[in-house]
Write a structure and sequence with these properties.
Layout (H helix, E strand, L loop, with lengths): L15 H13 L4 H22 L10 H10 L5 H19 L6 H22 L22 H25 L25 E7 L2 E6 L16 H9 L25 H27 L5 E4 L2 E4 L2 H4 L12 H9 L22 H14 L1
Antiparallel strand pairs: 1-2, 3-4
Helix pairs in contact: 1-2, 1-6, 2-3, 2-4, 2-5, 2-6, 3-4, 4-5
């Protein structure tokens, strides 16, 4: 999601953490009302913390949202409309956090409208930025490419932690401030990541790390995709190790100790090839999203659109030259046309006396068509 695709992008000059957290809440309204209601409390509590700092009001450690609200109300800082909006967000959030009942879209929309009132009040009263808050806009309905609910929870928690960290930094770094308008480009992400691209975990080898995106959390590590580590992965798989991404340890050092006759160099090679694998998979996912409904043949990071005309081309020695052994073995397995080929062409390297070179020749000839 870029800055033009979510409503609260106008908050970015004030706080990217606030803006992006609000953007993530917008994503959850129609996918999980409970999640939206639960995490909305963090957004409004952060706003109230900004307000108390601006008003130079002392706050006790571990102060709750309700206590903040009560203090500000007693000091006459909140209007009736803003007080009611804050109570609505807090109460719905508490219910969503504890009640097992099904929460409705209408309840999430009520909270969304209340958040708008709170944000508009905060921006107009406590910042001196020269722009007007846009008119209220209903959230957009869910897109075809959706965030999985587990990924949404992960993203929200990550942004909430960033928001809390930024507030602590502001509190410790400044004794007073003329306005609550802090740009946080050093901590906030540059953009809101597309669905599936949230980092679910990191894998380390000798102080170098790889970020694993959410869509690859349980990806099958096909050994043929790893040129130098194919045998290593096959052996690890036999020991029920490294068959899928989630089976990999957080640190690959000493992974070779699970199998015999491998060493530290194999750990490093696998780590290096994992980086390539992740990059290739990101390219593939991008292509699949941009061209929904299309069929592909993949060869590493390259791909071919499988058109009807291409599907029907026969797999014969006359049509595809220089790879007679591969063509013969495909035919023996009942694969007679291009449309019957596996989506993952590197699998064809399993055939006797074929290897990566001949699979590459087939791909090049297919691409030439």
């Amino acid at each position: 999601m870029n800055s033009s695709e979510y409503f609260y992008n106008f908050l970015e000059p004030i706080s990217k953490e606030l803006a992006f957290l609000a953007g993530e809440l917008e994503n959850t309204i129609f996918s999980s009302p409970r999640t939206m209601l639960t995490h909305s409390r963090v957004l409004v509590e952060s706003i109230l913390q900004h307000v108390m700092e601006f008003e130079k009001m002392k706050e006790e450690p571990r102060i709750t949202l309700k206590e903040r609200l009560t203090i500000l109300e007693q000091e006459g800082i909140l209007t009736t409309e803003i007080r009611d909006a804050l109570h609505l967000v807090r109460q719905l959030g508490n219910q969503a956090s504890h009640d097992k009942r099904k929460f409705r879209f209408s309840e999430a929309l009520l909270s969304w409208e209340a958040i708008y009132k709170i944000v508009k009040w905060f921006v107009e009263v406590y910042t001196s930025l020269s722009f007007e808050v846009p008119e209220y806009r209903d959230p957009t309905t869910q897109k075809e490419e959706r965030y999985d609910i587990t990924e949404l929870e992960l993203r929200l928690k990550s942004l909430e932690n960033l928001l809390i960290a930024s507030m602590k930094k502001e509190t410790s770094g400044k004794k007073a401030q003329d306005e609550v308008a802090v740009t946080t480009t050093t901590t906030a992400p540059a953009t809101i990541a597309e669905p599936g691209y949230t980092t679910i975990r990191t894998i380390e080898y000798q102080r170098t790390t790889l970020e694993v995106p959410y869509f690859l959390r349980d990806a099958f590590l096909l050994p043929q995709r790893f040129d130098k580590s194919e045998t290593f992965l096959i052996r690890l798989g036999a020991e029920q190790q490294a068959r899928i991404m989630s089976e990999l340890p957080s640190n690959l050092e000493d992974l070779h100790k699970h199998v015999k006759r491998f060493n530290e160099n194999n750990d490093k090679q696998l780590f290096d090839e994992l980086k390539i694998f992740i990059e290739e998979e990101q390219i593939r996912r991008k292509v699949a999203i941009e061209r929904p409904g299309e069929l592909f043949l993949f060869y590493k990071a390259n791909y071919i659109i499988l058109t009807d005309a291409l599907k029907n081309i026969p797999l014969t020695k006359e049509e595809f030259t220089g790879i007679p052994s591969l063509i013969k073995q495909l035919n023996e397995d009942g694969i007679y046309t291009v449309g019957q080929l596996p989506k993952e062409l590197v699998i064809l390297g399993k055939y006797k006396n074929v290897g990566v070179v001949n699979v590459g020749r087939l791909f090049d000839q297919l691409k030439g068509r």
